[in-house]
Design a protein that fits this description.
There is one protein chain. This protein is an alpha/beta fold. The protein has helices at about 15-20, 40-50, 65-75, 90-100, 110-115, 170-175, 195-210; strands at about 5, 25-30, 55-60, 80-85, 100-110, 125-130, 155-160, 180, 185-190, 190-195.
Amino acid sequence: MSTRVKICGVTRLQDAELAHELGAWAVGLIFYERSPRCCSIESAQRISAALRRQTPVCGVFVNASLERITETADVVGLDLVQLHGDEGPAFCGEVARRTGAKVIKALPVRVAGDVRDLGRYHVDFHLVDAPAPGLRGGTGTTFDWELLRGRRSKVPLVLSGGLHAGNVAEAVARVRPYAVDSASGTEAVPGQKDPEKLRALFAAVAAASEPAPTAA
């Protein structure tokens, strides 16, 4: 099965529409005020209205209250909720119940134990990202993908962390994730996508996902 692509850190309608045209599995909108990619509610509503029933819209939250997540999911019309902070398994379950959205739980991976820790989360998707002091995603750095070799969970895996057109093919080949997630690797500046970087990323993922030719 071909690896899917999630484009995160979107703040502009034209970037969301291009990601949709290129075949994005999901478009991520960040609702974390400390992020340079934070999306306003007004922009999020425009993006969600344009993509409705075409490309799922994912809201990204970091240690937000249950009330804020629920309200945002309702007013924007989120299909997915990504929890990128210190949220526990019970909180993730409550988000799913209250919003009706599918839940992605994200964790930074430093050691193999971090990968095992994700197994506590009975959510729709697991996302693994590169750790960085004081940052919550969008670091532009990768991590040691070999740490994922021991993963046994059947929850679909989304691979994030410093992915761009130059390294995503290797990431797909080595990890074989359900989806890859790119934020900084497809930007012109934080919060604004570079159309050529987007096209190059999708092309690289498509080429890496093609089965190897069989011998004659």
